[in-house]
Amino acid sequence: MLKKTFFCCIIFLVFFPHFISAQSLITQQAIRDRIAFLASDQMKGRFPGTPESWVCAKFIRTNFKTAGLEPLGKHYFQYFQPTVKLDTEKNNTFQFEGFNGTLIRDYIPLSFSKRKTSLINKVIFCGYGLQFNFDSLSFDDYKGVNVTGKWVMILRGVPGGFGKDPTLRASATDYAKARIALRNGAAGILFVSNKGLADKKTESSPNYDDLQRLRPRKTVSLDVPVIQIKRTVADLLLQPQNKTIQQLDSLNEEQPFELIPTVNAVVDIQPRKVKTANVVGVIQGTDPELKDEYIVLGAHYDHLGMGGFFTGSLQPDTVAIHNGADDNASGSAAIMTVAAQLAKDHQLLKRSVIIVAFSTEEEGLLGSEYFIEHPPVPIEKIKVMINLDMVGHLDQQKELYIGGCGTFAQGIPLLDSLKKESALKVYVIAGGVGGSDHVSFYRKNIPVLGMHTGGHPEYHTPKDDLETLNIPGEEKVCDFVYEAIKKIANIPGKIEFIKQGDSD
């Protein structure tokens, strides 16, 4: 009976959101109700393409429609079919004499590997797998060795002392190294994290040593098996020669050499596509000329579903609902709440404002990438993008962080002016662009502002629930965003992009 009652409430909220009144005020109750809906257990973590994710998309659409936003896209939806996951099939194996590896625990195919392939051959260790000559900087880890038809084992990252060299960094991505290996005739590639990467616990490798998250990438799949192995597995491969990966990592000058064991591996990964949608509405500006220019306010509404390995969960061995109240039901609720107030006050806006709830941010900014590659308005007419990602954890210091403020000339002075009038402690950061959906716009030379209230222990765990949020704090954030959009929408003259160093 309880489940039936809750389901009826969900249907009512989706199609008749009672909390959007004619006044459409920014209130704590409006914010709380929206987060409570999106971050409820019944939404099962909002993984893209699931029935629950579509319920959330329809809920957002109803909010847009009730607030008076006009649709952009088919009935407010911008449909697309991304690859959201790479499933590892049962055939995957990694073996050599005396060792039969376990998938995920010991090794993982990488996203740009050939989907179905196998290789049995010897392994050549080739250091960091670098090969280039730029001015005063040169590397050739393939000098004097023939790797044709064989596996190469190479260290991820860059040699010690070169971590900040931009030339080296561009040539030292895993994908770039794999292409170098192919150019030298390698038939398979084994990556091993260097010590710096192995010791760095991130979203991609929180609790399972140094293996990366297997997730879709935009890079083209290569025609050979590409596998990452743990450092402990690399040590077993090196054991017959009384070497360790730590020793080789420390030497830097080690010449390429052939390992004694023969590696037999099978890669079998299957892309999983889903149908999903960005939810897009627009509030028309009033100026005869400036109304054809657009400010975009966005936030992603997807999350990690039930979690598990390689979903991005920081508790990957725990399969449980990841409600994502802060990440990013908070941002989604904020854009709906601010949109309602902006629509009510549309006569105050010279430029038009697009409101968009992105799907598949957690899979690699796929929703915002699709939006910017298939813009519903001419891309040159999008003047600023404001992104809200995790805005529900305002702490006692009331700190709001805004990155990208230097991406347009008016950004820093405008926000400095606003923060003087705000109860928030606002950090106005010129660069600091990376991290969420606004990056997709920045890469297209569009000014951006990325807003968040900081990290917390509940991030990407099943504990990111409504009860942990600061709803009065988010109300203050929404008030600030509303005022910022009004000011940006009314900037006289041109708004032009300014690149911020290496922020990309």
UniProtKB/TrEMBL annotation:
Asked if the record carries the keyword Hydrolase, the reply is yes
Give one GO term, molecular function aspect: metalloexopeptidase activity
Q: Which Pfam families match?
A: Peptidase_M28
InterPro entries in the record, alphabetically? Answer: M28_fam, PA_dom_sf, Peptidase_M28
Which keywords does the record carry?
A: Hydrolase, Signal
The keyword Signal is annotated on this UniProt entry: yes
Signal peptide range in chain numbering: 1-22
SUPFAM superfamilies xref list = PA domain, Zn-dependent exopeptidases
GO BP annotation list: proteolysis
Domain Peptidase M28: start-end pairs:
278-480
Q: What is this protein called?
A: M20/M25/M40 family metallo-hydrolase
Taxonomic lineage per UniProt? Bacteria, Pseudomonadati, Bacteroidota, Chitinophagia, Chitinophagales
